[in-house]
Amino acid sequence: MAALARARNIADLRLMAKARMPRMVFDYIDGGAEDEIALRRNVQRLEAHILNWSALRDIAQIDTTRTIMGAPSALPFLISPTAASRLFHHHGESGVARAAAGAGMIYACSTIGSTTVEDIAKATPGPKWFQVYVFKDRGLVREGLARAKAAGFTALALTVDVPVAGNRERDPKNRFTIPPKVSAHTALDALSHPAWLFSLVTTPPIRPANFDTVPTDHPGGIMGFIDSQFDRTVTWKDAAWLVEQWDGPVAIKGVSNAADARACIDVGARGVWVSNHGGRQLARAAATIDTLPEVVDAVAGRASVIFDGGVRRGSDILTALALGAEGVAIGRSYLYGLGAGGEAGVARAIEILSTELRRDMALMGVTKIADLTPAHVRRPANPSS
Ligand SMILES: Cc1cc2nc3c(=O)[nH]c(=O)nc-3n(C[C@H](O)[C@H](O)[C@H](O)COP(=O)(O)O)c2cc1C
User: Fold this and answer.
1) What confidence tens digit (pLDDT) does each residue in 105-149 have?
2) Known active-site residue 277
3) Measured in angstroms, how far is the CA atom of residue 27 from the centroid of ligand 1?
4) Is residue 98, in this structure, part of any structural domain at all?
5) Which domain does 41 fall in, by range?
6) Does residue 32 have its Cβ closer than 6 Å to ligand 1?
7) pLDDT at residue 48 in the model
8) For residue 20, is it within any domain?
9) Residue 163 placed within a domain
10) 58-63: which pairs have CB atoms within 8 A and are 24 or more residues apart?
11) Which residue puts its alpha carbon closest to atom 7 of ligand 1?
């Protein structure tokens, strides 16, 4: 699409997504918890980091390949798991996974994805990970794992920053639910975006596609049922149980300090994923880039460190890699692309970030990801330490 090609950066894709989607759907992607302090902080603290360059290096060959938690990737970043992609564009999870595979990168599917893992596997043979929560009903967890394994998903991400749902105030303001309910307010919002509405009503209903046993008669709807499954009694013992259930690498997603990083190693995790859920959970959380060095130190090479939160530019990816992340996950950056133009929009988001990454590597005099070190970054004073 010519319009997508004109998007110069992720901020342009964000504006295109905003124009194409109902306000309530755009806000579900764009928003964070309460006053959105952690959401803004993730971005602002990344921007405050300074990159250093070395002059007069031979940068004729730039190599962006990276192995992330054992999976080889053409790029040092991956698709972070996000819920219900078909709500944003009818290409949904399959479109995102195809765009990721086209770029040679890893796709991670949310446990509350709106496409079955079998259909995603049919859409692309590319490398795929599955994200899970330890739900109250452990049978439901086992069902998700068995299906993901059979469909060829190779690794798991256990998300641990959602003991309860975060307080995202844009959603009740917009009367937004998944799936969206028709009211005077939401109908007007949806009707003013006819292309989006047409594709929503002409494709299968949005539901958590990977759980056949989810009851359809829960009073809070399907997502109400999922919310009721968040188990307040889950501890590291349950993380250890999950690691045992899966024959393959498990990353624990939602780590923000050294003690939790060490606990991940103790329960047998292969990956420690620094994340605050994109500022959608604890509203006053520290910026993830400020907690990354402490986690990298605590892990001390015993596991892969994955980073996410606030990545909107190639330079953000380079900053996290230089500070010790093995891989960097992107959330909103690809969702803006999905909202702007489906699979082609996600491909454009990946292209923008990888072009920025390659250009900045050249500008810094770095030709391989492994050559990035903390010396390439000047950290601003850390307000969270
Ligand atoms: C709309 C949306 C839905 C999300 N859904 C999930 C989810 O189902 N599971 C999960 O582990 N993380 C989820 N996340 C968090 C992302 O995986 C990731 O941690 C976060 O988006 C990173 O921050 P960024 O958006 O600033 O890149 C979601 C994020 C967004 C924006």
Assistant:
1) 999 999 999 999 999 999 999 999 999 999 999 999 999 999 999
2) yes
3) 13
4) yes
5) 2-306+318-377
6) no
7) 98
8) yes
9) yes
10) 58/367, 59/361, 59/362, 59/365, 59/366, 59/367, 61/367, 62/358, 62/361, 62/362, 62/367, 63/367, 63/368, 63/369
11) 82
